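Quarterly update from the structural biology core.
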Amino acid sequence: MNYIKAYLIKLLRFTANFSLFIGLVYHEPFHLVFTLVFVMATVTYLLGDLVILRYFGSTVGLLSDALLVVSGLWGLHVLLGFSVGYGQAFLFTLVTVALCVEEFAYHIYVERKVFGRDRPGLMDMINNM
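Predicted structure, tokenized:
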């Protein structure tokens, strides 16, 4: 059940970010936003969170998520026939930065609740600074 809950949290985060940045700011069509959300959330969850995060840790997991998001956004834009220029490159960077900030806290959640690791929570880390 924790795996499904973690995937739904990731799907909700991607939906919020992609709808805001790609849908509202850049006026990309709904079918592109929906395709990006579903494909990118699924790939980053299965590969980035369940495999890379589990075996290599949070830092490598965060870097792999950033790489997966940038390459996935670019690849799906090209595959679906949309133009990729400087505006889209800025968009990809903006979305990736926003998602990486969220991924830091999300990885703590996944490591504690899904993998059952004894890791300090986000508030504990902030209090120890």
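The chain has one domain: 2-127.
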